[in-house]
Amino acid sequence: MRRIAAFGLAVAMLLSLASCGTGGKNSQSSMDDELARAVSYGIVSEDELTDMDKTVTYSRFCELLTRIVSMRGEEFVPEWEALASDALLSDEPMQRDDALLAMFEASIIMGIDREETVQPDWEEKSTAEDWWHGLSRDYPLFSNWQEPYAGTYDGSTEYNILEHAAWHFEKTPSVVSRLLPFEPEEDMTYGFDKDVSYEEAIRALTRLTESNAKITADDPVYIPVTEAGGYDTSIITDQLLSANSPLPEVSQNELPSDWKGAGLSCCKDGHHIYRHFRESDVTFLAENGFNFLRLFFGFDTLRFPDYPEDGRLINENELKELDRLIAWGMEHGVHIQISMGFYLDENGNCKLDDSPNMMPENDAEWSIVSDYWTMLARRYKGIPSKYLTFDLSNEIQPSGDDFDYQAEKFSEMVSAIRSEDSERVLLHSFAGEPDSAWLDYTASLGIAVGCHPYYPINIATGDTGAGSGSYFEPSWPMPVLPAWQISTLNAPLTLQGEISGASLSIHVGKSGPNAQLEVLADGVSIQTLDMPETLWEENGECWYGEDMLTVQLPEGTTEAQIWVRNEDAHIDTVTVEGPAGHTSVVFSSDAPDDPEPLPVVINKDGSYSNTNNTVITGEDIYNKAIKPYQDTAQKYGVGFMIGEFGSFAGADWDINVVAAYQDTMLELFKEKGLGWCYCELYNAGTHLLIRETSQSQWSNATLIDAGLDASDGPCMAVKEMLDVFHKYTLA
């Protein structure tokens, strides 16, 4: 049954419209915004919005799909009509699984299907034992239904197409924004054998149309990157350039202390999402007191929608899209910073995280990256840096023995950019613990420094070593508990306080293959624990999943000690079930000044601390994760800013913990006079705005209407987060 799960779930998400459609028994549905967009796209005419509650037939559904395929490009229509020839003639009623299959077949032909696979936990979507009830698994009108992607996933043709179908429709933001979460009632099946109404069909097809910008994109105009001219003066007008602006002045030597911003991922680079930039993102920032937007940009976005084989061919329409974003920033008082998310290979494709070396590896790769940057410098020459800056690299630095080569080529690229526009302010962004030589070198070229203080790392990113698990319950302020030091110092992890008769569950993120934990109660050894089964082994270290090592302390225990024996073992969490109830003790993967680990005290109210009651403060964060970067910037007389910060928290973290951490960071930046940019304006179910789901991943979060244009799809804001930011942006 797992083999049919993806197909079924995708149907449910696309066509379970009870929670999002208007339904109705009238002969003609009211023209709400979504139906109006269906008319504007040409999917239906207004006159065709009749008998909306009738069951749609194969022929009608596929006829409407033909219009969408035609919108994508007339050249795709013959193949679609040949494939769907039987369906286009059939008056059989369409059911939910049929509809998904038809849309997926059309998506493949239109080239908007996804190549990645995803394996969600289908069983978590419903408690019903037969939640797949009604799935046909027989589609004679699309006899090829088992053929796409044959053999690319576990050798299962059937499962493969279903998995890919679910990936496309589950992960596409404009679809997800309307259909997720799908929350069935207790013991509910998905009802795959239910008929699709005409109204449901129109709404599903509208969402398909909006799922990928390739469908609605204008015909591309490809030109060599070296031949691209200046910006479109009808978009970035002289009136905008001459208007008074509240934005602060910017220089290479000093970045504004009052920059307050958020990041935005690029939209059409093949690795993120496929949609146009939205003015509403900019207006939201402006209306909420932000004045800075960092665009995490993949240069291959400029090759959308066809991504020509020649990596130096770019689409003028996409350059105009970038012009519009900059113009919106000028209009609304929001600075735009273009940050190169990835370097390019010589074919113009982004070098992703799994590349052997994310930096260019030869002259050809450096040449194409330099051509893109110099094109942007040339295009936007004359636009003051108070409106636009360039971030030349996001957290990418040399690896291996090629430092001198990379330094030489990077310097040549910087010189080329400055030869086109000597006034453009340039920046380089650095991750935590960067190569100090690279940081020093780039600053020596007169390039400003962007700092990304994700600290402490387990709170900022959810990274506990083996990854954030259900056992991990963060708190803030966070006591200073450097448990990783116990191996280094050959010292015990000590617990005191309310631990009499307590049960301990210990999570080890990583260890040596022969490591053990010895547990002592009031000085007496009570148990030696072997490591759980290895999740994976790398470079002589074993990494583990969510398995916990458990031990029962005797009644009357006043002090417990956990010793690491034989080899290193990094403990990240100990949960205590005892007289004070449930306490989850989280240890820092790093700590200010690397102190020796102090005993952990379990307090009567279930909280925990160390024996000195010390916590990680904003000043600790500054000294550990910010000051070294700022010192380098001051050494070379270049500007400095906080280019990213925030929390990529795991699922179900308490929003009050996350918000308290952000408050500490924002107060720190205010005290130190630092401009800043929050990591992401929106991203899945976390961060400030939520477009792609209807709920936050953070628990106890309050969602409010973000007040954005409805044509961009529903958008909610996390009130607790927004309230914290308003303290600093609207003050």
Tell me the radius of gyration: 28 Å
Strand content: 15-25%
- Termini, distance in Å? 56 Å
Helix content: 25-40%
Question: Largest beta sheet: what is the strand line-up?
Answer: 21-8-7-6-5-3-2-22
| Class of secondary structure makeup | alpha/beta
> Which regions have little confidence, pLDDT < 50, spanning 5+ residues?
1-29, 115-127, 153-160, 166-188
Per the CATH scheme, the topology name of the largest domain is TIM Barrel
What is the total domain count?
3
Q: Give the rounded overall mean pLDDT.
A: 83
Shape: globular
How would you name the CATH homologous superfamily of the largest domain? Glycosidases
* Main sheet makeup: 8 strands, parallel
CATH architecture annotation name of the largest domain: Alpha-Beta Barrel
> What is the C-level CATH assignment of the largest domain?
Alpha Beta
With helices defined by DSSP (H or I, 4 residues minimum), what is the helix count? Answer: 21
Please tally the β strands and state the result. Answer: 25
